[in-house]
Amino acid sequence: MGSWPVISNPSSDSSAFDRFRAYVLGNEMLQLELSRIDEPDRFAERSASIATALGVDLSCEAILASLRRDPLGLSRWLPAPANAAGWPSKHWLPAHLTPAPGGAVTVDWLHFAGERLMAPFFEPSLRRAFSRPLNQMFSYRTTLDDFVAAAKLNEALVPDGFIFHMSRCGSTLVAQMLAALPSNIVVSEAEPLNAAVQLSGHLPHLPPEKHVRVLTAMVAALGRRRFDAERHYVMKLDSWHSLALPLFRRAFPQVPWVFLYRDPVEVLVSQMRERGLQLIPGAFAPCPFGIEDGAAMEGEEYCARVLEKICSAALDYLDLGRGLAINYDELPEAVWRKILPHFGIACSEEDEAAMKLAARRNAKAPFEEFVSDTNVKQRQATQGIRAVAQRHLGKVYGALEALR
How many Å apart are CA 312 and CA 240, to the nearest integer? Predict the structure, then answer.
């Protein structure tokens, strides 16, 4: 790589670590090189070699010690001051919103090592990024105000579409099919986006216009073009985010969206096997669904009520335009026949073939072949599930069916 420029005249109170960090964070190619080294010993050796070439006295032992300070990653949940002001280079993505001293909020970033987001959900990619020595050695944390003020909107693609969904209704399949195309950035249920949506619950005096700016900045930060082939950007949201449709429509009034849903009986069977976090009473505080005494209800009853809130919120906005209702039984063909045209994304024969191949895999377990479970779920549905499905979801499901 040639010779490294020596950092001259360091300030007397600047540590070797701080000087090395400053240089690495100012060199995007060097960040990429170091981020792709998974082994701590090899990372320490390479970093120490670079530091020596820079005239910085930083040993392998000191670097390895810095990697052992927080092996479980607990520091990301703890209050800490910001250590940066602007956005980092494009291969860094927001990872967490964290409480800071004085009641403020900070944004933690992680370097994703030049890897596309291909996992069914954002979280596995996040965990892999955190395990990298580069991210364990260097934290990058901005205040929420700086995060918004420094937003590099010109580096990001404007979303082509949002995917809202009822839960357990094929949204992960749709996201995985779209992610199979290198031209698409697909962000699937990213926790930092969820934290941005929930921000008003933690900051009750947050002005609505600032909440819009936070959401706009977060969507942009997750959608920066990191690869030349990327032309389109789709976000798959958490199921309960249909309740935040007013916020999304204020921030992105021209962006089309879809709402995926499924026979409520089949969704309830899936949720009663293993409930999603949003269907556990008390998981969110304050509860976004306005359901009192959820902990005292039977599981089927509470789940059906939450699902009714999710579907009703989407139904209210489907009547206002830019939205499209898609039933699970229309998949996978609806992806290239309805969803992509609705998002304004052209689909070639090669694209369709790639998506069909992706649809043959289990969306949540991509190494397994997809097998339809519709008949199994219908057989497993108890009379109690059928009763609450009809009582709480029959009307809204019928309205969604009428729309399509």
Answer: 11
Task: Take residue 398 and report the two structure tokens written for it.
Answer: 């019928």
Report the 10 Å Cβ neighbour count for 120.
21
Same domain, 392 and 264: yes
d(CA 241, CA 78) in angstroms, rounded, equals 26
Would you call 69 exposed, middle or buried from its count of C-beta atoms within 10 A (0-12, 13-18, 19+)? exposed
- Number of domains making up the chain: 2
Residue 158 in domain: yes
- Confirm whether 192 is domain-assigned: no
- Domain hosting 49: range is 16-68
pTM exceeds 0.90: yes
Strand-strand pairing, 365-369 and 361-362: antiparallel
pLDDT in tens, the chain (404 residues): 344 444 443 333 358 999 999 999 999 999 999 999 999 999 999 999 999 999 999 999 999 988 877 666 666 667 778 999 999 999 999 999 987 666 789 999 999 999 999 999 999 999 999 999 999 999 899 999 999 999 999 999 999 999 999 999 999 999 999 999 999 999 999 999 999 999 988 788 899 999 999 999 999 999 999 999 999 999 999 999 999 999 999 999 999 999 999 999 999 999 999 999 888 988 877 778 888 887 778 889 999 999 999 999 999 999 887 999 999 999 999 999 999 999 999 999 999 999 999 999 998 888 888 888 999 999 999 999 999 999 999 999 999 999 98
CA pseudo-torsion sign 354, 376, 315, 215: negative
CB of 127 closer than 8 Å to CB of 223? no
Asked whether the beta carbons of 343 and 161 are under 8 A apart, the reply is: yes
Which tokens sit at 267? 């969704």
